[in-house]
Amino acid sequence: MLVQICVTLLTTALLVASACYTDSPPEQRWWAAGNVAVSAGMVMCNVDSLPLLMHSVVGYGVIGFGIALVLRGLRVYCQSTLSWTTIAIITGIVLAISAYYTLVAPSLRARLCFSGFYFALLNWMCAVAIARRGSWRISGIAFAGFVLLGLALFLRGAHLLANDDPAGTANSLVIGLSALVVPLAQICIAFGLILMVMWRYAERLRRLSTLDALTGALNRAGLEMQGKRTGLRAQRGGRSLAVIMIDVDYFKVINDTYGHPVGDEVLRHLARLVRLELRPHDLLARFGGEEFVLVLDGVDLPSALKVAERLRARIEYEMVEFDKLSVRYTASMGVVCSDQHDYDLIRLISAGDAAMYEAKRAGRNRVAVG
Ligand SMILES: Nc1nc2c(ncn2[C@@H]2O[C@H](COP(=O)(O)OP(=O)(O)OP(=O)(O)O)[C@@H](O)[C@H]2O)c(=O)[nH]1
């Protein structure tokens, strides 16, 4: 038991330290608070010199409350929540039953069996909360930890139920095994939870560094990274690679006439429209202020021209609604293909750019080939 308490305190310290980061998400703080409560509860339950009520009732209640907080954190992580009423019910059940087996019908065995089964159930609820989210690569370790911890507690409870004398089971295989598995599972959970948050930070950073915040399209860095890969894939597979440069016409006039927020909405609208035309492996990037790049793998020049013409017509037809205003806009496009140029994305983009300016010179709202 001493090892178990030490590991609990250690994993709690780890979770608290990770939650101390100024911008830590709420779920991380719930996990830390939950573990602090579980640690406190475990210490209470194991200090025999404490008053009976603290030792045999409140201690269990605090552990139940702690696991409920961890569950709340997991729900928050999965964009849901666990109400305070549910947390109060979870805690109330442990307090009531522990009090019953301490004060009304005193039985250490019954109390230990109940707490084993009940805490196992709570840990499995945590595992279910994670499983609902999916993405095993990210949360597999924490999931395994909760399942394992639940299993060890359940087996401990079942073993006690099958034996009349709780003190006599201390040296049994099940109790020995659970003394090994419980700390292991606690370590898995602590590292798993920290990993889950780290993955989320990494994903947020990746999005920030590769996506354009206004339109959600790739930014230049994202285009450079993913475009290179798409180009290589097309070249290796012997497929054509098409690039379409799209530039909003008279965008400065739109900004000057209706204001920058409307201009921003036009850019978001354009990105949304283009995305409707994309296949999952096509790339859309915002190349500059009002200029976008479309990279299409496995598309030859005639097909790319069809895509561009379809887009141009749709942009011309659609209306942007913003703050009781309805605005129309058009776009000019330059289309190039690796069949005529090379697979080098930078060269394709500069040829597409030249074609797009040709379309502008020819009167705008049209498609030109480079
Ligand atoms: N609203 C908004 N405007 C932007 C953004 N980025 C750049 N701009 C504006 O886009 C305008 C681009 O103007 P120009 O380069 O003259 O292009 P244009 O008016 O579309 O003219 P043509 O391309 O020749 O048809 C400038 O006024 C920039 O301030 C943005 O993120 N939001």
From TrEMBL:
Molecular function via GO: diguanylate cyclase activity
- Known catalytic reactions: 2 GTP = 3',3'-c-di-GMP + 2 diphosphate
Q: Where is the GGDEF domain?
A: 239-370
Q: Which keywords does UniProt give here?
A: Membrane, Transmembrane, Transmembrane helix
**Broad EC category:** transferase
Q: Is the Transmembrane keyword given for this protein?
A: yes
EC number, UniProt record: 2.7.7.65
Superkingdom in the source lineage? Bacteria
What parts of the sequence cross the membrane? 52-71, 83-103, 109-131, 138-161, 173-199
Q: Which PROSITE patterns match?
A: GGDEF (PS50887)
* SMART domains the UniProt entry points to: GGDEF
Q: Name one Pfam family in it.
A: GGDEF
Query: Which InterPro entries does this chain map to?
Result: Diguanylate_Cyclase, GGDEF_dom, Nucleotide_cyclase, Rev_trsase/Diguanyl_cyclase
Q: What is this protein called?
A: diguanylate cyclase
Taxonomic placement? Bacteria, Pseudomonadati, Pseudomonadota, Betaproteobacteria, Burkholderiales
